[in-house]
């Protein structure tokens, strides 16, 4: 009796030390260590003789301690003001001081199968985690002067719309004074539907199957950025030092991106007005449209052939990449962002080529001023991966959803330097095209039938508008 009690006590404190060393709070570590020790004791009594059972390590803060911060803290522009989420804020500030981890993708023990969950997680993070804008842009370059003489009406209208957008976002002078910026938020991602030639499988349990996560974004003029997004036990890092764009995923490691330096698409979703305006400097106004009942001007930007060739690689050719921005006629702000790019992958055996069309549609909401700059504090995205070609009636279409909210934003953070944006030393030689993140084999096994939940969060086409269940968005507020 004494011996077993001593072993149990020793197991508890051993587990406690390990958990605290991993960065958990003492209270949380005690709870988890007690559970681990109890499980180990049960194994010993059953004759299993197993060691201590510890939960998988999360590359991030304790979710319980970082929850409850809410989405209302973004307007103060600070890093933590005694709120419940301060543990996450402290963790964020230490991220750039350590090297990115190359840990393997965690396997969940929820209702879905491990292989299906890994496939879902890889697809979600690969496509949505750190998507890039279509073209290179430098926010330091001034926008073209508004002119109607010898200028097509589509171009001059676009210039006028962008001038209004900059004024509504805080003004050119204030926006140009930002040397660096920081944003932190939470996100939920889920695969909602998989369609093949024979059937359509909808994830009717998306609310429970959605993967919760967090992200932190740092930016510094000119053209430097770094993002770290943790989701479902895994983490994606991506960054740019002004000359090189790189990304690190658990399944590919660290690699540089093909083509010119491009901004992070997530920064265009209401977080960086100056870069957004510079991105659309070469756009054309193609008309008007209502978005959520609000009249908007539509600006269209197409990637030039030279950029498309630079992004292509081997048998994979980027055929087009188009970006549409919807600017509210009432407020002047960007409320909807949609981009679509088409990739052709030639068969190595001489057969028909396979085409992949990726469409991301983002609704940008909840604008609030932060230090005089209008920042969107919430939004949602719908992603469609459409694969076709090869033979007739062999297409597949996968739909995904993402909802996000911003908790903290700050500008001109003291101490941030160029050293914080140095690429990792283990970047593989050569560049990798974005096509490597597409599901292989044409069978996007997203495991939709193995999830369990209570709500339907599928994407539906209705009058060319995306119908949302709202389940993900509510969870991010």
From TrEMBL:
The record's region (Disordered) falls at 1-31, 54-84
The scientific name of the source species is Brachypodium distachyon (Purple false brome)
State where composition is biased (Gly residues): 67-80
Any Pfam family matching the protein: DUF620
Protein name in UniProt = Uncharacterized protein
UniProt cross-references to InterPro entries, sorted A to Z = DUF620
């Amino acid at each position: 009796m004494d011996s077993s009690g001593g072993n149990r006590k020793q197991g508890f404190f051993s587990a406690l030390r390990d958990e605290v060393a991993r960065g958990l709070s003492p209270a949380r570590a005690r709870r988890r260590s007690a559970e681990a020790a109890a499980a180990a004791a049960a194994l010993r009594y059953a004759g299993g003789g197993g060691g201590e059972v510890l939960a998988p390590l999360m590359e991030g803060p304790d979710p319980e301690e970082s929850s409850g911060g809410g989405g209302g803290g973004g307007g103060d522009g600070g890093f933590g003001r005694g709120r419940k989420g301060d543990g996450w804020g402290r963790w964020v500030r230490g991220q750039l001081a350590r090297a990115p981890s190359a840990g393997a993708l965690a396997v969940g023990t929820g209702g879905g199968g491990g292989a299906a969950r890994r496939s879902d997680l890889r697809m979600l993070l690969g496509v949505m985690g750190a998507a890039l804008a279509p073209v290179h842009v430098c926010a330091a370059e001034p926008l073209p002067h508004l002119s109607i003489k010898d200028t097509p009406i589509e171009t001059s209208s676009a210039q006028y719309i962008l001038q209004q957008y900059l004024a509504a976002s805080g003004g050119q002078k204030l926006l140009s004074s930002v040397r660096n910026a920081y944003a932190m938020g939470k996100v939920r991602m889920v695969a909602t539907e998989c369609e093949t030639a024979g059937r359509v499988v909808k994830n009717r349990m998306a609310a429970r199957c959605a993967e919760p996560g967090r992200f932190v974004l740092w930016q510094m003029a000119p053209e430097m950025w770094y993002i770290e997004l943790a989701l479902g036990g895994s983490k994606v890092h991506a960054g740019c030092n002004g000359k090189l764009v790189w990304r690190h995923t658990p399944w590919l490691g660290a690699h540089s991106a093909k083509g010119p330096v491009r901004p992070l698409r997530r920064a265009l979703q209401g977080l960086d007005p100056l870069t957004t305006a510079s991105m659309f400097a070469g756009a054309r106004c193609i008309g008007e449209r209502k978005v959520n009942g609000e009249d908007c001007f539509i600006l269209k930007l197409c990637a030039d052939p030279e950029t498309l060739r630079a992004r292509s690689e081997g048998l994979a050719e980027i055929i087009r990449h188009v970006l549409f921005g919807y600017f509210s006629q009432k407020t002047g702000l960007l409320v909807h962002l949609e981009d679509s790019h088409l990739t052709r992958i030639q068969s190595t055996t001489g057969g028909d080529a396979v085409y992949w069309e990726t469409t991301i549609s983002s609704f940008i909401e909840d604008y609030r001023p932060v230090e005089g700059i209008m920042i969107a504090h919430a939004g949602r995205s719908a992603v469609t991966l459409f694969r076709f070609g090869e033979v007739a009636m062999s297409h597949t279409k996968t739909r995904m959803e993402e909802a996000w909210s911003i908790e903290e934003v700050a500008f001109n953070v003291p101490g941030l330097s160029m050293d914080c944006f140095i690429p990792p030393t283990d970047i593989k030689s050569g560049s990798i095209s974005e096509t490597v993140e597409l599901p292989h084999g044409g069978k996007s096994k997203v495991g939709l039938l193995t999830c369990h939940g209570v709500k339907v969060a599928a994407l539906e086409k209705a009058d060319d508008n995306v119908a949302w269940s709202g389940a993900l968005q509510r969870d991010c507020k």
